[in-house]
Amino acid sequence: MRALGPGSVSSFLKIILDVAQVALSIGLGVVTTLGLAALLFHFDPKIVFQDADFSTADAASARRIIAGGLLIGAIYIGGVLVIVGRLRRIFSTLTAGDPFHPDNVRRLRTIGMVLAVLEILRYPIMLITVWLAPEVMEKSGFSLNLTTWFAVLVVFVLAEVFREGARLRREAELTI
Fold first, then answer.
1. What is the dihedral of CA 157, 158, 159, 161, to 10 degrees?
2. Quick one: 111 exposed, middle or buried, by C-beta within 10 A (0-12, 13-18, 19+)?
3. pLDDT band at residue 137, thresholds of 50, 70 and 90?
């Protein structure tokens, strides 16, 4: 089976990325809707539960944790949507048989930056979680994810490989 061009592995992977983008877009819509509902519920919980007592500190803390979790989920899904969108464009060039398209360098760098930002954001989120819900962190623990940092480095190296491939292609086009 071919790696590039129509009917290749790259075209199959692009279809999978298309489906993933639709699913992530729907997920972002759901999380955003739930976040707005949580915000509304935070201001006036009696909107949903007329007879319940939500005046305790535990209930207020739980509402803040839920709202924060939904915000974090929306940010994460947004970052993954950016990554999937760039991957779709890269795989479009692969399907077209043009792997060293100059825009792929920028796309790979964007993917690397988004991966790095998502990983960097994970650390303050874990610290806030330790502060607000220590029982959650007792189970999962605080960790440095070396796999993610390795992936970030690999993506940046691949961006440079694609940059060099695009440069060589330009030189070859100028050769008579």
1. 90
2. buried
3. low
Mean pLDDT along residues 18-43: 86
Q: How far apart are CA 109 and CA 87, in angstroms?
A: 11
* Helix 146-174 × helix 103-132 angle, to 10°: 170
Token reading at 21: 């983008």
Q: For residue 114, which phi and psi values (nearest 5 degrees)?
A: -65, -40
**Cβ of 4: how many Cβ atoms within 10 Å?**
15
58 neighbors 49 (Cβ within 8 angstroms): no
Answer for the pair 54, 41: CB distance below 8 angstroms, yes or no.
no
The amino acid that residue 85 corresponds to is: G
Residue 8 reports pLDDT greater than 60: yes
Q: Which amino acid is at 159?
A: A
Average pLDDT of the chain is 84
